[in-house]
Design brief:
83% of the residues lie in helices and 0% in strands. It is mostly helical. Among the domains are: 76 residues, Four Helix Bundle (Hemerythrin (Met), subunit A) (Up-down Bundle); 31 residues. It is globular. It starts with a helix and ends with a helix.
């Protein structure tokens, strides 16, 4: 019972942080609000007993990608961005698309709830736990995992070469 209330609390806070992300005029505050969204999502993952996914959410998204976003924001010319105004038509299109996405997510959530309650959709025991993910990652999906690591290594080497070429 308490986990249901916590899920509603974390979801509500995630929505408030998401709205704050959109409404902030300062891009750094917007990035901080986006970090809040990601932390609330990680809290919901913990409630769903998906500790590994929650840890990855914090480590990868909050720890790495958001730091990258903040550095990019700091490197951009913020004075030029302040002078440019967002057109009302673009904002209206964004609000309409956001409402459509929210409606679709609500419909999918309701349909999933009905499927789970009727017994037609069963979630395997332990799904999302670190042990189950590790078992599948290093047995069934070992080759794709290794290929992904090689692709990331090639990207890292390419970034170093391009960065060194520009520095010279």
């Amino acid at each position: 019972m308490i986990s249901t209330y916590l899920a509603y609390l974390f979801s509500g806070l995630a929505v408030l942080f998401a709205i704050s992300t959109i409404l902030q005029r300062n891009p750094v505050y917007s990035a901080a609000s986006l970090i809040g969204v990601m932390v609330m999502l990680a809290c919901n993952y913990v409630l769903l007993n998906a500790e590994f996914i929650a840890a990855i959410q914090i480590i990868v998204y909050v720890g790495a990608i958001m730091v990258l976003f903040v550095f990019v924001i700091m490197l951009l010319n913020l004075e030029r961005a302040k002078r440019e105004k967002l057109l009302i038509s673009r904002r209206a299109v964004g609000v309409l698309l956001g409402l459509a996405l929210s409606l679709k997510l609500a419909m999918v959530g309701y349909a999933s709830k009905i499927l789970i309650e009727s017994g037609r959709l069963k979630i395997p025991e332990g799904m999302g736990s670190t042990q189950v993910i590790g078992k599948y990652l290093f047995s069934n999906y070992l080759l794709p995992f290794e290929v992904a690591s090689l692709v990331l290594l090639v990207g890292l080497i390419g970034a170093v070469v391009l960065g060194k070429r520009e520095a010279s």
